[in-house]
């Protein structure tokens, strides 16, 4: 529970870590019971790049456009602003939290601070599990794009049937190995590669918008075309639209990564909220325009390839093979930096939970390399788990698609583990934003309430047992249709049972990570909760 903010010392009593501008980068860490250990090297663009690369417009739109068109027709475009509005409510709540607590593993630490250690652990566990599955899912995007650039990238078979899945695992493993190495060598290298990749992605996205706009063959009223979908169904087109909206919901998340790098950023209390909003708004505008002009410019709106190859088909058929391949190479770069950002966020989350002794072998997972100034072991373990998920599911593509869908739901639920306790604290009058920084003011309660309602509604929509999502090809199995409820139930109940019977008694800031008190002591050692 967050109480009123304690007064800050005046200029006559400077704190360690005080910078020339008077801000205190490490205040929030001390309040949470941690000492600063990660090196602050990231600037404004680095944190913005982390958020926008996780969302990764080119990755998401090129991977999921076909799904939206197939299930909702061109009118599915309206799900993009709908999802943006809902996620904006969540992001605004996160901005207030990022201003006050810009800390590694942001969602976990925020849920712990607002809802208590049990809610915090469950939210962190859900987010960590989802991140590892997402790392595998994003890696599969290489298979969607690289073989379309050149058949040389189809190392196994001809790209049909089982060979496509095996080749996807091979390409995905190479990508995960790359992000593991980059993250293990430190945040500075990661930030440089990520920022360069994001710059290329943004330039490519803007150029793509202009090129598509120059080839329009129909007006913007195309977004009212439903293809006649939903006829004969109970909910009519609305039901089809809700299914198609998953193509947008699967893209617009991960903006909290900008805050999860808060312990490695300069002046994060001011920069993290800006980075969160800029990443989300830029993604909405760029992604919305790409989708709109793609619908307006594709030569044949009824082409079956549109429902199979999606934006890849639009680019190649509209812009020609040469320009189209250049754009697809930019998509490959976007996929790479997206994977890098997902891996980075997972490492910070694992480090944050381990620092509180909330994971097995916590002291090893929370160890910061003195040479690279980053937790190396979480990078390796998360990478190995992601590769393992790919290998296990190489012959079970249906199950993998179910798990991938479920991972997104778990992230939405993890966000709820923050916004719901935050709303409770607001209603009780216990939430105080950081003074002089981002604040929702009188709009706090209505924005927070909308964020909670949105989180529940979209989680239910994502989990709804649709054959189109959870059992797209035969044979039909009830456990696949209800996979979201079954898998999340097992992960949540199994994970929480482990926490309750094993980890709960050990939780507390590890002594080597605990903040040093004015008297020279620490607020709590291993196995002892921090007051």
TrEMBL record:
It comes from the Bacteria. One of its GO terms (molecular function) is transmembrane transporter activity. GO terms for cellular component: membrane. The keyword Transmembrane applies. Residues 1-14 have a biased composition (Pro residues). This is Amino acid permease. Signal peptide: none annotated. Residues 1-26 are annotated as: Disordered. It is a multi-pass membrane protein. Keywords: Membrane, Transmembrane, Transmembrane helix, Transport.
